[in-house]
Amino acid sequence: MKTLAQKQSAVKLLTEEFWSKNEIVNQPAKIEHSVNIIDKNGNYKIQVNAPGFKKDDFKIKIENGVLNIQAYTSDKKEEIKKNYVRKEFLTSFLARSFRLPEGIDISNIKAHYKNGRLYIKMGKANTVKQMNKKVKVQ
User: Fold this and answer.
1) Is the pLDDT of residue 48 over 90?
2) DSSP code of 55?
3) What's the pTM?
4) What is the largest CA-CA distance in the chain?
5) 7-21, pLDDT tens digit by residue?
């Protein structure tokens, strides 16, 4: 049989320590958006692991020779129940940047999003041109 001290310790664990401001426990989950870059058949192909987004969440731009990929989403679905003790909302942000090598044909970059992965295809050009461009995700 548990002693009074053991019972009090268990109650403290379930109340005070459970709701503590422990920084490690209360940090939002960080999703690492890993990337594969493939050089094949005169093209660079970039694959970005990005689950939970929609194609309209992405903003892809090339500025001064840097490919910038950003996406933001927020779950606005609200489920109403009584007696919430803790309720967290989903917000996801992706930001990756890559300095492009010389010789990229940025006039013909294509991007599409499928099954939680963003695919970007860039052809290699014969001449070096520096331009700025926004890329629409298909």
Assistant:
1) yes
2) G
3) 0.66
4) 82
5) 666 555 555 554 555
Angle at 41 between CA 39 and CA 47, to 5 degrees: 40
The pLDDT of 98-124, averaged and rounded, is 91
CA gap 76, 101 in Å, rounded: 39
Q: How far apart are CA 43 and CA 110, in angstroms?
A: 11
Question: The tokens of 39 are what?
Answer: 């050089």
Above 90 in pLDDT, residue 50?
Answer: yes
Beta strands in 15-116 (DSSP E): 35-40, 43-49, 58-63, 66-74, 91-99, 104-114
Measured CA to CA, the distance from residue 71 to residue 57 in angstroms comes to 5
Q: Are 50 and 117 in contact (CB under 8 A)?
A: yes
Structure tokens that stand for 53 in this block: 């987004």
